[in-house]
Each structure stands twice: as structure tokens, then as C-alpha cells.
Design brief:
This protein is of the alpha+beta class and about 190 residues long. The protein has four helices and ten strands. Helix content is about 20%, strand content about 40%. Helix 3 packs across helix 4.
Length: about 190
């Protein structure tokens, strides 16, 4: 199978199995992200490894995260692996439009769930693609958490909002942390270990 065909097959399958909101890029709020994901962490990417999945239809990347804080859920270890679609193996690169981008040395707030990707089962995934990733950035006012979904044109939600939580400026990091904790305390549903 040609490299281009492998990419197209993998991408088509990925879009078929992605949650409806993620595949159409409908805007989701923090309440949704907290309720629908069993694990919310703050952490830094310490390494990545890209590889072809077993069927050879899609490149996946395992991302090692050094977790500094757990905002929802429980972990036995403070280093976890998150698997995302896309990456580079040799001369082949697969990019998933709207997908999470996790780069070594950068810190993030991640909304994670156990899930399946083509060729792997029961791994930690960013099920809401770029909407489940907030980059932690320093600016003159302090730490900010900025959604990667700012790179996309989102479809408005039921309330008519079409920008990710915090918009282009993001949310204050402490504000995001407290909002997640408050939503968890009010009874966000899923919890995964």
C-alpha cells in the first residue's frame, strides 16, 4: 500500500471513530471536558516515540508526560503515556487536522480518557483532539492556559459560543485549575485510573 494511501485510510478511520463533536469541531466548554474525561492532569512532555500502527495504516505517537498535578482522577505513577494520532516515521509524516500537538519540553493541561485508536486499544487519548489540550504559557501577567483549539474555526455550541474557553488570550492558569476542581466537586461523571 502506498504511503499516501496509508495516510488516507488512517485518517478516514480516525474521523470515523472520533467523537461526533470532535470530528465536526463543534466548540466544547470546560464543563463538557471535565464531565467527559476521566483524567485531567498538568504535566510536561519529556519524550515522544512515533511508529506505524500494527496494520500499517496510521502513524501514532506515544507521548511521555511527567505529571506535576492531577486535577481529576487517580494515577499510580506520575509519568504517563498518552497516544495521539499523527507523527513522523522516517520520511513519512501524518498530520491530523485539529489533532493534539504535544511537544517535548512544553507544559500542558490535558483532558484524557482511555480509548482505542486504529491498531491500539485501551490507551490514554486526548479524545477531544485539540480542544482537550491547553498550552501553559508565561506572559507579562503570569501563567496562562491557552486552548490549542484556537487554531481552528469552531462551530458554535448550543449557547452560541464559537471560541474555546478563554479565547485567544486563554485563561489564567490558576483560574483554569480552580474551575476544573470546582466542576469535579460538583460531580463530573467519568473517572478513569
Amino acid at each position: 500500500m502506498s504511503r499516501t494511501r496509508k495516510f488516507l485510510c488512517g485518517l478516514a478511520f480516525m474521523l470515523a471513530v472520533a467523537p461526533a463533536g470532535a470530528s465536526t469541531f463543534a466548540r466544547v466548554g470546560l464543563d463538557y471536558l471535565v464531565a467527559e474525561n476521566g483524567l485531567v492532569v498538568v504535566g510536561e512532555v519529556v519524550g515522544t516515540r512515533s511508529y506505524w500502527n500494527d496494520p500499517g495504516t496510521l502513524i501514532l505517537t506515544d507521548v511521555q508526560i511527567a505529571v506535576s498535578e492531577i486535577l481529576k482522577g487517580k494515577l499510580a505513577d506520575h509519568e504517563i503515556t498518552v497516544t495521539i494520532p499523527g507523527g513522523t516515521v522516517g520520511d513519512d509524516t501524518v498530520a491530523v487536522i485539529g489533532g493534539a500537538e504535544l511537544l517535548p519540553g512544553n507544559a500542558y493541561v490535558l483532558f484524557l480518557e482511555k480509548g482505542d485508536l486504529p491498531g491500539v486499544s485501551g490507551v490514554r487519548v486526548v479524545r477531544d483532539l485539540s480542544q482537550g489540550v491547553f498550552e501553559i504559557r508565561m506572559n507579562k501577567g503570569g501563567l496562562r492556559a491557552v486552548s490549542q483549539a484556537n487554531r481552528l474555526e469552531l462551530v458554535a455550541d448550543a449557547l452560541g459560543k464559537a471560541v474555546p474557553p478563554g479565547g485567544a488570550q486563554g485563561l489564567g492558569f490558576q483560574e483554569l485549575r480552580q474551575s476544573v476542581r470546582d466542576l469535579v466537586a460538583r460531580g463530573a461523571r467519568k473517572e478513569v485510573k
